[in-house]
Amino acid sequence: MDQWAVVCEGTSARVRYDSSFINRQRSWAYSDIVQPLQYAHSCYGQQDMLLNILEEGQELNKWEGYVNWRNKPAMRDQHGGMLAASFVLAFLANASNLVLYLSKFMHYSPSSSANIVTNFMGTAFLLAVLGGFLSDAFFTTYRLYLTSAAIEFMGLLILTVQAHTPSLKPPICASASTEIQCEKVNRRKAAMLFTGLYLVALGVGGIKGSLPPHGAEQFDDTTPQGRKQRSSFFNYYVFSLSCGALIAVTFVVWIEDNKGWQWGFGVATAAILASIPVFLLGSPIYRTKIPAGSPITTMFKVLIAAVCNNCKSKNPSNAVMGMKTSTSSYTTETGEEGNATKVKVPSQTLTEDLEFLNKAVTEKTVSPMLQCTVKQVEEVKVVLKIIPVFMCTIMLNCCLAQLSTFSIQQAATMNTKIGSLKVPPASLPVFPVIFVMLIAPTYNHVVVPFARKVTKTEMGITHLRRIGTGLILSIIAMAVAAVVEMKRKKVAIESGLLNSAEPLPITFLWIALQYLFLGSADLFTLAGMMDFFFTEAPKSMRSLATSLSWVSLSMGYYFSSVLISTVNNITSIFRHTPWLSGSNLNHYHLERFYWLMCILSSLNFLHYLFWANRYKYRTESTAD
């Protein structure tokens, strides 16, 4: 109020409006502007002057580039914020028990079941790219989520019907011997199974591509408080996934094992249906980014223009505009970390990074359609620079794929009792889930504030260091998994149960060790990747960039399938039987496979260090 001065001098009036101050305080509530104006208006009646000021205040109160759910301009005092983001903290469907459903009820072999699950999960996460692309280019994240949830609902409904109807499943196989083969699901029934699975995958992909960026867009990234809240949102998004996973691996798994898979699928179907009205409750306060057209088109235009202009670089008439370069808008990972979060306005000149692309900006192009701006070139550079970091996270997610496949099958061969309580093998992920639920709030409210005080930076712990921590934990997890598998097989041999389907006299809690390390790796890496990709990417392609976190998971699952097939093909040349083949897990050489993954993960970490040490952070910019 002290920034407004209303001076009454008889019948005249003078209103002083400090526009520079209000520009610096863009986060003011609209009422903070209206109240003094109403006072001045009632005192003096200077309507024209006050209306002009009021109109300017209204413009300042708008979120530029955002609309509400009714496609009207979003207002700063009405839309966005932590409350709006809290409505999108959703549950994650858990597939840990799916591998047992495929092997025990659809009669696929353990390796085939593992491949089906990894392919299904890989496809679901890969389709997140489609969701992110559609969110940025054509649809809002709000509408895309609702459409994707409906598609996932239809897929789960098909799976529920099949699980409920005996004629749609193969005959029950009650053999206790692992040497007798059961009848697999036939083509017609398999078609229904995979139709349901991949409708779910399509829905999950759309949700993954729209929901995280929808929540992150609720925060004002031009203020330190908004950026801190956005970082907290990604942490609590992972926390919410863990809450959903806890229900899935306990209550839902118990229902599947004791009441039937039709009830398990039914609970998942009801859950996704119930999530739609919960999401809709936040509609009045959501702000949604206006689609800005295809970001992929811009990327291809810049790349094609750069190639064409480099080919004609000998021609003096094609001199590059803006050859003066600048790196003042960027800070390095290895340098002073405090600079990584300072707000600067980048110069409108080409940077020295990826100079090959600079020639996309020319005075004379091959075609007017290939005319590029400096901003477009710099945005493409940012995307190209985050790709190596993305590639380095694929191996970690290949390790995570084992949690839904071989780890579950290992636990199924062991003693799953804790005292008198018999724990379903698919509930084993409860250990990392609980650990993540405990460590996520601790990390957000203890570790990060402490790191901010020590480093005196806004971030506290940089995104790349957080991702690197996850990669180290995945290496440890694979080494632990190999040692535990060696112990499990030793017990099977000593107890004479190598060819038996009876539980081995060793507790399944040994498997929990690898779950704890991989669960911790997932916490550090997933939230770090989403925050990193969203923060670094240009605003026009943030949904697409955030979906790279899920694409990394997808590629990890696919790479797991390829790795298993490759290992089997190579080892079958030197042995009569491959490492990972057959219906009896006790005959697998799973420990060798885990040691191989440990070595590959170590090499991948060295590869990651190479790119992380050279990465230059893209600073926040009010001009972006």
From TrEMBL:
Membrane topology classification: Multi-pass membrane protein
Gene3D superfamilies found in the cross-reference section: MFS general substrate transporter like domains (1.20.1250.20)
CDD domains: MFS_NPF4
A molecular function GO annotation: transmembrane transporter activity
SUPFAM superfamilies the record matches: MFS general substrate transporter
Keywords noted in UniProt: Membrane, Transmembrane, Transmembrane helix
One Pfam entry name: PTR2
Annotated GO CC locations: membrane
Protein family: Belongs to the major facilitator superfamily. Proton-dependent oligopeptide transporter (POT/PTR) (TC 2.A.17) family.
Protein's recorded name: Major facilitator superfamily (MFS) profile domain-containing protein
